[in-house]
């Protein structure tokens, strides 16, 4: 009877120890579950922030592209205006040549100098317009590149947030 009682007490103590071990395991699981949920919330917030930042960068890059396109259009209009001015100056020069042939050589020389100056100004304006157009095209390409990079970062951040 004593042996049976000792066995029963020993079994009872083992059960109590097993129960205590299960309590510890359950508590640890609950703690890790809370940490997992907190990490998931943090990852979700980080993902949303990354998406917001990427959207902002895409908008800014699009605005840069629009500005560059508008400036390129302005440069094209300026070049067209300069071309029309050159054509007017050449027409005026033709008329002046005809007048000079009729005996107005001095006036012709003055006007020819004016036309040549206008042609020189046209040439300079055309060169300036070309330089502006090239720089604006480069700026547009850079802005497009930044927009593409921002979209790529957003995609990577979103993927990283999903993995987290």
UniProtKB/TrEMBL annotation:
<feature type="region of interest" description="Disordered">
    <location>
        <begin position="67"/>
        <end position="104"/>
    </location>
</feature>
<feature type="compositionally biased region" description="Basic and acidic residues">
    <location>
        <begin position="78"/>
        <end position="100"/>
    </location>
</feature>
<protein>
    <submittedName>
        <fullName>Uncharacterized protein</fullName>
    </submittedName>
</protein>
